[in-house]
Amino acid sequence: MGASFVDNQISILVVDDEPTNFDAIAILLAQTNYRLIYVDNGYKALSYLAEHQPDALLLDVVMPGLDGLEVCRQIKTNPNWQHIPVIMVTALNTKEDLAECLEAGADDFIGKPVNGIELRSRIRSMLRLEKQYKDIQSLNQQLQGANQELTKLNSMLEERVQQRTAQLERMLLYDNLTQLPSRMFLLREIEKALQRSHNEPDYQFALLYLDCDRFDLINGSLGYEVGDKLLIAISDRLSSYSWPGSQLARMGEDKFCYFLQSINYQDQVIQIAQQILQAFSTHFTIEGCDLFLTASIGIVLGSSYYQNSSDPLQDASTAASKAKSQGQGSLQVFDRAMHRAAVERLQLENDLHRAVEQQEFLLHYQPIINLTTGRISGFEALIRWQHSSRGMVFPAKFISCVEEIVG
After folding, report:
1. What is the pTM for the complete model shown?
2. Among 166, 190, 313, 355, which is least packed by CB within 10 angstroms?
3. Structural contact between residues 371 and 384, judged by C-beta atoms closer than 8 angstroms
4. How sure is the predictor about 2, in pLDDT bands with cuts at 50, 70 and 90?
5. Measured between alpha carbons, how far is 38 from 47 in angstroms, rounded to an integer?
6. Phi then psi for 66, rounded to 5 degrees?
7. Domain residue extents for the chain
8. 396 has pLDDT over 80
9. Once rounded to an integer, what is the mean pLDDT over residues 181-188?
């Protein structure tokens, strides 16, 4: 039996064991552009589907061997075929028969003898559904492709974010110039040590805060480039001094700090500090220039007394400032009196600034008597501070502070 073939036409597979039934369908669809393919049994239909994808099937129900219902079931259970519309063509017209067709997976059915108008209408309806399915499938593929691209892009962005986060983390925790751990890194280590000291009463740590003497003079006279190279040389030399559980960090500018763990007694820390001071007994050579440098060290013994990580570090800095005031190459163990003195000094500086604004300074002129003649030969100008709450403050209490403030 024949079938019409035109390129790009809609293809319909007709499965019927009676060739005359195909001829009748071909006549009814003669005025359409459908391309009809005919096979006369269910096995041939499945073989054809294995290699081709028709746009629709007209499937006879009653056939010898493999009947239409079983062919329909196999089509609808195969992921590659289940989207193809199946119209059952049957002379059986009871409700039970039609229900059996639907249970087999049929999309529609038409009774025999076939009516041309009804046949064309049902085919058009099924083809519209098939087109919608293909459109949805195409859209899904596009969405899947877009989703894969988005997933790939998201993965790339996550990787970049992780890399950038790691870079920022390193910038935060390590000094860019010397590559030593930074102040933030040290604060985290101190926090861990404080937690341990709260759980282990006998655990004690120490901070050795090192402040280079005369570094500002070298930096100012030879330039920042030489100053940076000197800082790198200092960090390299200090890094060669290490003890079990110790950590060296740069606090900024010319200041460094050793973090020592499991300290047993104060003299042990003082001995270590003296060894560190010896690191500056040999000059540094930068760009052919020999530079001599000393350092002052402030010592803090850390324990559960402290509640936050910044306090012991601040106390170590205070002790280093005290050591520096005693002369180059000194060390000083922190005590509570230093903290009180630092607080009082800060309060004095604040009061001095306020005294200028409120005009609390008074000028007194003391006459100078010539002992020979007994006559006044001049006057000595004396400054006094009429503090709003302390009363009269004499120069010995504030002159040195003023000199530091004004440089």
Report:
1. 0.56
2. 166
3. no
4. very low
5. 12
6. -100, 110
7. 11-139, 174-334, 336-407
8. no
9. 95
